[in-house]
Amino acid sequence: xRILLVEDDIQLADALKTSLSHEGLTINHVTSGAQAxxxxxxxxxxxxxxxxxxxxxxxxxxxxxxxxxxxxxxVLILTARDSMDDKIRGLDTGADDYLIKPFEMQELFxxxxxxERRLGTAxxxxxxxxxxxxxxxxxxxxxxxxxxxxxxxxxxxxRSLMENAGRVVxxxxxxxxxxxxxxxxxxxxxxxRIHHLRRKLPDGFIKTxxxxxxxxxxx
Length: 219
Description:
With 219 residues, this protein is α/β, with parallel strands linked by helices. The chain folds into 2 domains: 118 residues, Response regulator (Rossmann fold, 3-Layer(aba) Sandwich); 90 residues, Orthogonal Bundle (Arc Repressor Mutant, subunit A), CATH 1.10.10.10. It is built from 8 helices and 12 strands. The strands form 3 sheets. The protein has a 5-stranded parallel beta sheet, sandwiched between helices. Strand 6 and strand 7 form a beta hairpin. The longest helix has 15 residues.
């Protein structure tokens, strides 16, 4: 899942990027409302975490612009504005959730998981296909109930494929879910990840659709 973080506090943004990346999420960061709207228009994210106190415009104006364009992108407001009027205004303008700073990171993770379930990218915490199970809350994978040791990026590729079981996931989509802006991507990065996974998973679990991408068949 690709999250666009709109936050002008660089120290907080860096901490959020680190913590959310550890949760298997891809985080891109901008510091202004104009940058956020440009990125959203380009379709670079699946979800928005939005601060309201931005240097160029109020976050509510960003949210209004998103909703006025009929964009249903999930938006979680993350702000120090703690009055009930501010919260009601944010939700009425079209935010999916509203979390007040300071906050507990585990609560933020839980709220993101709720939005993931609404999107249909994670209907439940445990996704089981055949004898392979992936737990999105614990970031773990088991084969025949035995734990599999996977690197973070291998896990993220497998999660994307299992969440989209029955559909073909393109190489470009896997890359965009795996790497942040500006991160160098080798030409065979996804192929390497798929190779690592196939060595540990049952034969034929991940299928290549030549010229298109990869898929895992629903059982």
